[in-house]
């Protein structure tokens, strides 16, 4: 599926305003963002792009003006874009490295993940993905059944498998992500991760999971949390990200309503990733 890149330029540049605009666009289907010196780039599936929605969603801030440029990115250009401009190897706590197949190897790192980025986001560079990876590294996955909800590149499920998970299931609404996850499983010799196209509605009737990973966005998490809990084992862990620190109280309230107990959270550049346990 082609994606549309919207390059937003702020005058004068303000990191706080940039963060506000990113949060606003994150509420209307924009999937990923790349910071620039004068603003940011935002990516959305081309069929979902609308200039009218974009201009209605961004609420002007006094003292800062903005302009934007629009560019459609064909599917076949994405690998080259990432390789040339964005995707560099990332090492997390000296325990995990995420690299592309075009990067050199890191034999001294215990968990080595190879990601073919394409147009499915999730390479470990965004704060939310990095924090989710740290949660996985901090928890024993041995023998557990794990759900990677909104799997993207499959990076979270792949690390869970490397950490000893017995079975991993990835689900995403985008066929590109499903295909990319399957490709990345093959690149990393992961044989216990299945992937399917769908959303939270497809969870109905599934066998329960020990761990559910959901790095999506605030609104979807709030709406779908009840569906996650329905397939989470008592005592099981739900780890979420994709929202800012100021949204954490809303997430905690909804979690409590669904019988979840707050454990802890990680925070980086105002993004947060909390973990919850389902009461026994």
Describe the structure.
The radius of gyration is 18 Å and the shape is globular. The strands form 3 sheets. Strands 8, 9, 10, 11, 12, 13, 14 and 15 form an 8-stranded mixed beta sheet that branches. The protein has 280 residues and is an alpha/beta fold. It contains 8 helices and 15 strands. It folds into 2 domains: 71 residues, Alpha-Beta Plaits (2-Layer Sandwich); 199 residues, Vaccinia Virus protein VP39 (Rossmann fold). Helix 4 packs parallel to helix 5. 30% of the residues lie in helices and 33% in strands.
Computed CA radius of gyration, to the nearest angstrom: 18 Å
What is the name of the CATH architecture of the largest domain?
Answer: 3-Layer(aba) Sandwich
Largest sheet: 8 strands, mixed
Which structural class matches the secondary elements?
A: alpha/beta
* CATH secondary-structure class of the largest domain: Alpha Beta
Helix content: 25-40%
The span between the termini is 42 Å
Give the integer mean of the pLDDT values.
90
Any low-confidence stretches, pLDDT <50, length ≥5? none
List the domain count as a whole number. 2
Order of helix and strand elements from N to C terminus: EHEEHEHEEEHEHEHEEHEEHEE
CATH topology of the largest domain: Rossmann fold
Subcellular location: Cytoplasm
Binding site for S-adenosyl-L-methionine: 129, 150, 172, 215
Keywords: Cytoplasm, Methyltransferase, Ribonucleoprotein, Ribosomal protein, S-adenosyl-L-methionine, Transferase
EC number: 2.1.1.-
């Amino acid at each position: 599926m082609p994606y549309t890149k919207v390059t937003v330029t702020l005058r004068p540049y303000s990191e706080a305003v940039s963060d506000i605009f990113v949060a606003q666009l994150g509420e209307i289907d924009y999937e990923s963002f790349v910071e620039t010196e004068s603003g940011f780039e935002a990516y959305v599936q081309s069929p979902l792009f609308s200039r009218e929605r974009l201009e209605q969603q961004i609420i002007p801030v006094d003292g800062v003006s903005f302009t934007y440029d629009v560019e459609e990115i064909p599917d076949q250009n994405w690998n080259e874009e990432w390789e040339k401009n964005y995707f560099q190897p990332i090492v997390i706590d000296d325990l995990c490295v995420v690299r592309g197949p075009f990067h050199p190897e890191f034999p001294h790192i215990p968990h080595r993940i190879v990601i073919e980025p394409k147009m499915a986001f999730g390479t470990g560079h965004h704060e939310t993905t990095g924090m989710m990876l740290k949660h996985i590294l901090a928890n024993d996955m041995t023998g557990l059944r794990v759900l990677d909800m909104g799997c993207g590149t499959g990076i979270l499920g792949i690390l869970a498998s490397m950490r000893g998970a017995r079975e991993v299931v990835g689900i995403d609404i985008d066929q590109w992500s499903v295909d990319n996850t399957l490709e990345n499983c093959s690149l990393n010799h992961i044989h216990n991760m299945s992937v399917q196209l769908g959303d939270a509605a497809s969870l109905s009737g599934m066998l329960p999971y020990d761990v559910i990973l959901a790095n999506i966005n605030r609104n979807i998490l709030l709406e779908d949390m009840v569906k996650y809990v329905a397939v989470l084992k008592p005592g099981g862990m739900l780890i979420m990200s994709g929202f800012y620190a100021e949204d954490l109280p809303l997430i905690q309230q909804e979690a409590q309503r669904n019988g979840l107990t707050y454990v802890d959270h990680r925070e980086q550049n105002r993004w947060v990733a909390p973990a919850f346990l389902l009461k026994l």
